[in-house]
Amino acid sequence: MPTKIIMLILLLLFGNGFCGDARAVQRAITEQTFIYKVEPTEQAPEQFEDAVRWSRKKTDLGAVSLSGGDYWMVSAVKVNRGDQRWVINVSNSIIESVDYWLIGDDNSTQYLHSGYYAPYEFLFDYGRSVEMRYGVDYWLVAKVSSRYFSSQPKLAVQDFETHKRQTDIYALMIISCLGGLLFIALYNGLIYVSIRDKAFLYYGCYVFCYLAGWALTFHLPAHLFDFHGLQLHHLFFISLPIFNILFYKHFLQLPETSPRLWRLSLLLLWLCILALPTSIFLLSHTAIIASVLIMLWITLAMVCGNICLLKGFYPARYFLLGFSCLLLPAVLILPGNLGLTPDFFDNAELATLIGGTADALLLSFALAYKIRLLSEERERHIETLEVARKNARTDKLTGLPNRFAFDEAMYEMRPQKDNVQSSKYLVIVTLEGLAQLTKRLGHREVDSLIYGVSEALKQLTVTMLPEVKVVELYRIAEGNFVIVCSPTALDSAREKVAEIQSGYLVERYSEVSIHLGFSANQDISDPRQWLRLAEQDLYNRKSEIRRALHSQSLQMQSDLEI
């Protein structure tokens, strides 16, 4: 949808240029414009009859040389309305100096000066207001002087109100586009500062060069700060391919996606770097050089975007849409800038600025889409890591947290300075006789036994009241479990172990026994000490049972002997 709106604006703008010409012809009849070379010390004619004789001695060139020079632009004009206020204007190119003479057959002569170094009368325009009367024939003579012409200049006459309204609309468009470019450049610069992704840095530099180039083209620094730097205009435009190639290197991941296209892009990048001094030392030819490099860049960028899209890089869609908005005016304008074709419409600079702003906006969408993809990929990676971490902390047989999870929990339970440590018990539960059971029934039956014991111990975490809380249950070895519980749950844990021994084990696995040992965390500075104390208590309890069984065996022997 945004792309359709942008295309519609461009088409309306082009159409507006044609319609503007039609209205001008209806209100002011302007004959063909003749272009003559200015000879040294030559002056403009002073009288209407002198202009006729003067023009007959001249040879019409048909066009100016884009490499610059001094030229006369001459046209016969007659107004067909009673309005007295009109505007004469040379447009469609950057011109350093424009001198207007309006010579009437009523012996009136009006002289006005405009150009790059002159102040505005109309925003972003070389036009000057004049008085013209109905029924009077005029010669309009304009002397244009510039070190280069960005395109073929056009001489036109328009009524004052129409011209003022049109230039105000164009000024609104220009300021809006430049403001949008400034916002996009700053926004991407701030994103680079926060995430350090070079794609945003190079894109911000690209948009800034585009902004600076068009601000100079529309003479904003000249009229706001009295700064005139004709040599800098195309310095920024030649820099556009440099930063854009560096941008799409990172954005499209071009060296990995298509090494051959990256080598071509790198070659074009170095050509642009070598061409930068031409904007200063070859000023008369820099517009032609910039036009050639920009056309090569746009073509190569479109090829790179299509290749990357075909290889499955979906953010390239916005990349291609952006360059399509830049390509539309470029295809119509750049051949005219090179002198290969006539200009297809007026306001070429404004059309290109709007197309470039649309390109910048859509490339911002491409970067935002890439950020979304990276964010989704990061979330998937985090989820994968979380699943892997959970699997690494979980015993596959019982589903209980394993020894790794237990060590983590012990580390988190270590006493902190100035923190009140809650009272807890660590209960270690162990199964004896698993080796004999394995020999008799095999590993599968042992696994079934361990799983059954774990399910019985899990009931502690379900049936306990809130005030009788089992903190956690772990399986830390083949036949070893750990229960971390509150003091009030200790008796329940002991009862559950006795229940497992007397019920589950005696009935099904008589050669297996279950034992427990426990330790409180009072005066414990190291969690490992807590576990060692519980193991020591377990060992003591098992020793007591063995001594009791041994005493019982001796007693039975003595009874038999008696």
UniProtKB/TrEMBL annotation:
Tell me a Gene Ontology molecular-function term this record carries.
diguanylate cyclase activity
What are the UniProt keywords, alphabetically?
Membrane, Nucleotidyltransferase, Signal, Transferase, Transmembrane, Transmembrane helix
Domain called GGDEF: residue spans:
422-554
Task: Look up the EC number in the record and give it.
Answer: 2.7.7.65
Membrane spanning stretches: 169-193, 200-220, 232-252, 264-282, 288-309, 318-338, 350-369
- Tell me yes or no: is Protein biosynthesis among this UniProt entry's keywords: no
For whether the record's keyword set contains Glycoprotein, the answer is: no
Q: Point out the signal peptide segment.
A: 1-24
Q: Which domain of life is it from?
A: Bacteria
Gene3D superfamilies per the UniProt record, alphabetical = 3.30.70.270
- This chain belongs to the protein called Diguanylate cyclase
